[in-house]
From TrEMBL:
Keywords: Membrane, Transmembrane, Transmembrane helix. It comes from Henningerozyma blattae (strain ATCC 34711 / CBS 6284 / DSM 70876 / NBRC 10599 / NRRL Y-10934 / UCD 77-7). Belongs to the syntaxin family. Pfam families: SNARE, Syntaxin_2. Residues 210-272 form the T-SNARE coiled-coil homology domain. GO terms for cellular component: endosome; Golgi apparatus; SNARE complex. Residues 1-29 are annotated as: Disordered. GO terms for molecular function: SNAP receptor activity; SNARE binding. The keyword Membrane applies. This is t-SNARE coiled-coil homology domain-containing protein. The chain crosses the membrane at residues 282-302.
Length: 303
């Protein structure tokens, strides 16, 4: 009896004596571990795609700096960047709408402190990657706007409407129609002056440039809408982090409180144990005295 009582007392003196045995079920959470691994894998993919998008941005920035705005090369880069942005958006939405919701719905009582902290860190990491994605998208949008502005200026300078051409012909004719000889010569010069710009500009190329400008304007609008949508996820994760941070702080405070209560209970148990031991000694002394008196009277009777 005293041995089991001492063992119990030892477990109260050292709170870790039975902590591992009592908390094994809290460490064993296959669902949490699976979700954590899936979120980590998706987070790795997001960060890799963000690095690729940032590389596209730097390449376009180099073209702007060197004033080498080749529409076909830029269009190829832009297509890949848009695919990259759409892929990242899809991964972020999947992580937020599926994985994070599931891991947040796991009962806190089924997780230990380490797992709660790991969950909070995962959400912080996802939020940090989303923030970096937002910055990279904004930088990319700004550079595409610059490229589009340059393309618009070039397009407007090269395009000449039929009304402008007619006015130019009329003006040149009026200025050079003073003599018959000059009129014939001027007519040839005018044709050259009028048709040189037309020969220099390919109508199909102008149409292609116009289409690209319109597509980029639409892409910029779509990216900006996507930024606003992802920003809502960013805000929601901020609220979740704040809530879980308070929860982790409360758990830590409860742990310290539990340790204090355990120490106080241990002191009380030690006092009770000492009192019990003193009581047992006192009872043994009384028993020996009574036995001595009993044998003394028995001896007198026998005599």
């Amino acid at each position: 009896m005293s041995e089991s009582y001492d063992d119990y007392n030892a477990s109260m003196v050292d709170p870790t004596f039975s902590d591992d045995e009592n908390s094994n079920k809290y460490h064993d959470s296959p669902e949490f571990e699976t979700l954590k691994d899936e979120i980590s894998a998706n987070l790795f993919e997001i960060n890799g795609q963000i690095a690729t998008l940032n590389h596209f941005f730097q390449t376009l920035q180099t073209f702007i700096t060197k004033k080498q705005v080749n529409s076909k090369v830029i269009n190829n880069i832009d297509k890949k960047a848009i695919e990259n942005i759409q892929l990242i958006n899809g991964i972020i939405k999947n992580v937020n709408n599926n994985l994070l919701i599931k891991i947040n719905n796991i009962d806190d009582l089924s997780l230990d402190k380490v797992q709660l902290i790991a969950r909070e860190k995962l959400i912080r990491d996802v939020r940090s990657s989303i923030q970096e994605f937002q910055w990279t998208q904004k930088n990319y949008t700004d550079i595409i706007k610059k490229i589009n502005d340059i393309a618009k200026d070039s397009y407007n300078k090269n395009v000449m409407t039929e009304e402008e051409t007619a006015l130019l012909v009329e003006e040149e004719t009026a200025n050079k129609a003073k003599t018959q000889t000059q009129t014939q010569l001027t007519s040839k010069d005018m044709q050259q002056q009028v048709y040189i710009p037309r020969e220099a500009i390919n109508n199909e190329e102008l149409t292609y440039q116009q289409t690209l400008i319109r597509q980029r304007d639409e892409e910029i609008l779509n990216i900006e809408n996507g930024i606003n949508e992802i920003n809502e996820i960013f805000k929601d994760l901020g609220a979740v982090i704040q809530q879980q941070s308070s929860m982790v702080d409360n758990i830590e405070a409860n742990i310290y409180s539990t340790v204090d209560n355990t120490r106080q209970a241990n002191e009380q148990l030690n006092r009770a144990l000492n009192y019990q031991r003193r009581s047992n000694k006192f009872c043994l002394h009384i028993l020996f005295i009574l036995l001595g008196i009993f044998f003394f009277f028995l001896f007198l009777v026998l005599i």
